[in-house]
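Subject: Sanity check before I submit

Could someone independently write out the structure tokens for this chain? I want to compare against mine line by line before I put it in a report. The sequence has 556 residues.
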Amino acid sequence: MIQPGLRPRILIVDDQTAHMGALCDILREHGYDTTGFASGEAALTRLRKESFDLLLSDLMMPGIDGIALVEAARQLDPELACVIMTGEGSIASAVKAMKVGALDYIIKPFKASALLPVLARALETRDLRLANAHLEQQLRQHADELAAANRHLDLARREAERANLEKSVFLSNMSHELRTPLNGILGFAQILASDALPATPQEKQKFAGHIVQSGRHLLTLINEILDLAKIESGTLNMALEAVALDEVFLECHTMVGPLAQQRGVQLNFPPAAGLRLQADRTRLKQVLLNLLSNAIKYNREHGSVFVECTPRAKDRLRIAVSDTGPGLSEEQLGAIFQPFNRLGRADNAEEGTGLGLALSKRVVEAMQAQMGVDSTVGAGSTFWIELALQGGEADIGAAPPAATGSAPGVPATLPPQAPARRAVLYVEDNTTNLKLVTELIRMRSDLELLFATDGQRGIELARRHRPAVILMDLHLPGMDGYETLARLRADPQTATIRVIAVTANAMSADIARSEASDFFRYITKPIDIDLFNQALDEALNPDALRQHTEPLSQPH
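---
Independent answer below. Compare away.
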């Protein structure tokens, strides 16, 4: 566009030099800056060096004629306004000139009064084209910016949805994990407090032991959840200092040694004399104890645990804890640091909260260090932490094989009962819950209990024994309770058996999902014994209609 205060620059080309000179003089008098040439070749040479606002060219010239000149000039400057002068006056010539980019034409001879409006229109058209091009460029730029903003918003939306989903899963898992030990506490406490459920002094002592064990587990779980919350909020206190590694190894060896001896696992620590790490001493020991206890618990019988120290980058040391256990699959490795993940092991005879590794990783990162894992199925696992260098025995019993249907403290088979007793199958992988329901069923003279620790075994027992009722946990190893129920319904042998969900899943989403399932009743843990027995009685009644039990307390 022509800047305000500047004279429009016009390039005049006419092989009649007298006419060309006269035009230059006249247009200068009318406010134009003119340059004249007698040939198209000379005009193109100047156009390659300078820019003009308008080209006024004769049509018929030797060498390059007006149409060829316009075409060549617009290739050099697409925004150049072009006007043709012709003595022919033919419409064909005008159309041809327009096709190559001329904006207008004027027929010789002409007066200045006729030429000036033509030039003004051509320059206005040029300015309008330039303004439109600038506007289109701005629109494209704005469109690109809007597209980029939309992409960022979409990423933010997906991230928010992912975070909300993770939060919902975490809360659901946390509700389940908190309710599991609470179920044992309240369940056995109800037995002790009830006159209608008699128990011998020895049984009462055993029940009290279960309450204490579940209470300790619940306390550990709450403490670890609070630690996770502190880390996420940035309020976990860290005192980074020079920590003597050999002292930490000695303390860890002393603390996990009895567990290793109980399991027949050999511990191998390296010499660490003189090594000092930049870490929080208490938290470093917490992480190492977690890794060591896991390596012992999830090892093979008479296996080994190796602790190795390897220099890494400058001023950094990697501490690796390796076991000779079964190793972890790619799928298990992908979820190993998620809260409430139990090393891919679904049998809960191995005591733990499922928060240890998730908490350890966050603690390590809070110490400005890194944590990772390498594992091969059948060859064991190695968990490692990498830090900056600076100048009681658990009550754990052996895990029962999942397919045997046995668990610690629960008889594999019940004593022979009168023929009138009806079978109830309980599919549950948590030992404490299994013990509680075993006691509740034992106190009923009309029922006997079968149990399985996973869905597949539960289906097999249901086909073999055709129980009157099935009690089903939802968090099961392998296939969950919903899939197990679907397979029971798909089998004509088990399709009509009534199934009661007995679960710690008490969130709103869990209740809503159960409504769409085919469970006869839905009981949440901790179990209310009266509601439990009521649900059993209704399930045993062939005339009772399917319904759901409301959760004992509304989820928050």
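---
OP: Matches mine. For the report I'm noting this point. Residues 228 and 359 are 6 Å apart (CA to CA).
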